[in-house]
Amino acid sequence: MSVQANSTAPAVPGPAAAGARQGHAREFWQRFARNRAALGGLVVLLVIVVVALVGPLFFKQGPFELAGPPFSPPFGQFPLGTDMLGRNELAGIVFGARTSLLIGLVATLFATLLGGLLGGIAGYYGGAVDEMLMRLTEMFQTIPSFLFAILVVAILSPSIGSVILAIAVVSWPPMARLVRGEFRALRNREFVEACISMGMSDARVIVRHILPNCVSSIIVTGSLLVATAILTESALSFLGLSDPNVMSWGFMVGAARDFLQRAWWLCAIPGVAILVTVLAINVVGDGLNDALNPRLRRL
Amino acid sequence: MSVARDRARYIARRVAGAVPTILLIVTLNFLLVHLAPGNAADVLAGEAGSATPEYMAYLRHQFGLDQPLYIQYLDYLKNVVTFDLGYSFREGMPVRDLIFQRLGPTLLLMGTTIVLSIGLGILLGIFGASRPGSLRDNVISVFALVAYATPLFWVGLMLIVLFAIDLRWLPTSGMVNIAAFYTGWQKVGDVARHLVLPAVTLSLFYMALYVRLMRSSMLEQRGMDYVVTARSKGLTERAITFRHVLRNASLPVVTMAGVQIGNLLGGSVVVETVFGWPGIGLLAFRALFSRDLNLLLGIFFVAACLVIVVNIIVDVIYTLLDPRIRLR
């Protein structure tokens, strides 16, 4: 870790650096591709992303509209059948993919920004600021996070925005701890000391020299946060806490729950969609970890 | 004598250390109610029109909405800290009584889940780590990976389809068979039968987490000097694993289990909702359904206090288990 970080630290832009970057990219890809599971997960994830982006264009009707008779079984006129209100189950899955990925990504982005900011300040400045911010992080980790998310969405009334806010507010602590740890370790390294003694501003040291050295860890943790965020979103919408105008997988399971005895597949199908998506992201995250932090490779 | 006093002092210090967390929770509750769009009384009463004028007046009084903000805050703080959590008109009972009535079933579900998930997690972790890379290890790892990605509510529903609807082995929901009026051991058996599916559902996710943790912890411990010493003494692999490695390797799992208590409570909201298990999770779902936000705030507060208490208990147990940890 130490040698590698030092050699990448003085990133001078220019043709030589561009070549080196290309070499890095190839090396990264080779390491990632060695993990077969991660490669498979990546393919599955790409399919889901494509479905979420272009899938909705293939449906003339929205996912909430009546499409046919209720409780049509799968593999008939409708590939996945219809639900208790005659809505097209496949349309629900396709539109739901968009919702899950969108909420997962945006909530993680906010959590990363917030956690990164607090963790970065704590790790860079240390001392009393560090102590205070870490106490706050610890307290937030003690709070039953899912209950808090429920409370936030219920009070602010369910919408895409409130769901994203609730998930972001409960998922920043791990990111703050990670960034704080990385910043603390890098802060005392020679190249950072050198930058500071040259009179560089704190902001410049952080953005140009410290941050690039912990991007890989942030990406790995972020990818796992996306998976958790999708699971949290599905649980919230299962309980009825989703935007009433947006189709979501958890909502589909929750709505079909009362008809479990008659049409269990209406619950099963969206659940499989959640499972496959979260599994793919987790596996890709593990692969990223192996490829980006080869020395920290977990056994 | 002195150890006992140290321990008492340690507990006192931990309780004092929990005060800021409780303050944070109360503050979050207060902020949420006031940040929400509209009048705080409207927010707490839920959809406009469904609350009686008396209830609105009561809420306004309870939150002192005619007072300046900081007085409202102090009043609210005083009420909450003395466990005066208000009255739920929808359930027709004080919030505190409602919650404490339902604490038992939730604690039963949580306790069973903790034992089940840690026990199975450690066992499967040892099985996997004893032959890394083998078929057995791979099967366990894939199982843990899938269980870690599965939504709890979905596992619950699928288990209901299989074991309650198709096979009719276990009841679909509730905690007791209301029609049977069992007493004594028959009642215990009845509750146990109802407990199986919710406990298994809630355990699966955490077990997956502990399997992964235990496996890597075992592999890490195997390279330690004390293992080499034990092997050179001529101990069998089995004795080394169970008598020496197991204890050290399971410490991270116990730590993680302590960290996960809060999440476990969140998970039990979903699981209790799926199985109609009459704990505070189901109460939270009902509060959500009837938009009884004051009750929901109370549940959140009590749940957070519960997490703090359990964490302190876990830490004290920890110091009993591992004498190297000082009561600092």
Mean pLDDT of chain B: 82
Helix run count of chain B: 16
| Major sheet: arrangement of strands of chain B | 1-2
DSSP strand (E) fraction of chain B? under 5%
Order of helices and strands of chain A: HHHHHHHHHHH
Assembly category? heterodimer
**What is the helical fraction of chain B, as a range of percent?**
over 70%
> Quick one: how many beta strands of chain A?
0
Extract low-pLDDT stretches of chain A. 1-13
SS summary, helix count of chain A: 11
Could you name the ranges of chain B where pLDDT drops below 50 across 5 or more consecutive residues? none
Number of strands of chain B: 2
| Outline type of chain A | globular
Percentage of residues assigned to helices of chain A: over 70%
Radius of gyration of chain B: 24 Å
Mean pLDDT of chain A: 83
Global structural class of chain B = mainly alpha
Note the gap between the termini of chain A: 17 Å
Kindly, what is the distance between the CA atoms of the first and last residues of chain B, rounded to a whole number of angstroms?
17 Å
Strand proportion of chain A: under 5%
Major sheet details of chain B: 2 strands, antiparallel
What are the key terms here?
heterodimer, A: 299 residues, mainly alpha, disordered N terminus, B: 328 residues
Describe this structure in words.
The complex is a heterodimer of chains A (299) and B (328). With 299 residues, chain A is an all-alpha fold. Chain A has eleven helices and no strands. The two termini of chain A are 17 Å apart. The N terminus of chain A is likely disordered. Chain B is built from 16 helices and two strands. In chain B, strand 1 and strand 2 form a beta hairpin. The two termini of chain B are 17 Å apart. At the A-B interface, helix 5, helix 6, helix 9, helix 10 and helix 11 of A face helix 2, helix 8, helix 9, helix 10 and helix 14 of B.
